[in-house]
Amino acid sequence: MPSNDEDRSRPVTYWDTVVARMMTPGVVQIPGDISVTEAASLLEREQMPCLLVKDTESCFGLMTPADIVKKVVAQGLEPDDIEVRTIMTRPVQFIEYDRVIEEASTLMMTTGTPILIVTKQEQPVGVLTARDLILSPTRCRANIPVSIRVMEGTRPGTEHHAVIIQLSHVGALVESPISLLSDTTVTLSFSLPNFMSPLTVRGTVLSRYDQSGKPPFSSMPNIDIQFANLSPANQSRLKAWVLQNTPKSSDLS
């Protein structure tokens, strides 16, 4: 699969926001010979911003609602008679899941595309849109004790004590005494300052930062965790806390 991940000279650092945290997980992939009608049904059913069209092993395109409206409906064409390969948007821009948001923004601006397909080891895993960048959540610096349990199947494993050092309603950066591999499922239990009841949330480890990506005062791994299946109540509590504790200037440098 094509990759735009050519320049990895700058390490991902402690305060960076990575693409995986902002993307919509999952990619719906279709062949190039299905009809526009079928593609439109898939877009509606899956509620995705686009479909990834794989016409051949090396030829990719995107099918978006805008393509259907502008290239079929506005032209008075019959969607049952049009194959998606004839109206798909090309070329597709790809970016690796662990790259920083600034790189994604630059890629969108230089190529003029509002949609990037996110890859992990060259396999599509998500979609990032310009709207995602605009709505990207603020991360608030924190110092919140947290208990981490690694999930072993459906059961939580040994409890470890750590500290949340960045927090938003979609994830947390945790300073941990243990190192966790990417894609590990964990549960986090913590209490927000000035909030009465504790929270227990499930998450997935996106990445860990090595010594080059950590602040000099830290001797423990920093683990980036994306929350999963967060309840509306917990999401609202996290949003409220972050809003109350984020400085007016959002510059964390």
Count structural domains.
2
Computed over alpha carbons, the radius of gyration is 20 Å
CATH superfamily label of the largest domain = CBS-domain
Multimerization state: single chain
User: Termini distance?
Assistant: 35 Å
Strand content: 25-35%
Identify the overall geometry: elongated
The amount of helix comes to 10-25%
CATH architecture of the largest domain: Roll
Number of strands: 13
Largest sheet: 6 strands, antiparallel, barrel
Mean pLDDT rating: 83
Spatial order of strands in the largest sheet: 8-9-10-13-12-11
Which structural class do you get from the secondary structure elements?
alpha+beta
Separate helix tally = 6
User: Element order, helices and strands?
Assistant: HEEHEEHEHEEHEEEEEEH
- CATH fold naming of the largest domain: CBS-domain
Give the C-level CATH assignment of the largest domain.
Alpha Beta
Give keywords.
alpha+beta, CBS-domain, 2 domains, disordered C terminus, 253 residues, 6 helices, Thrombin, subunit H, six-stranded antiparallel beta barrel, 33% strand
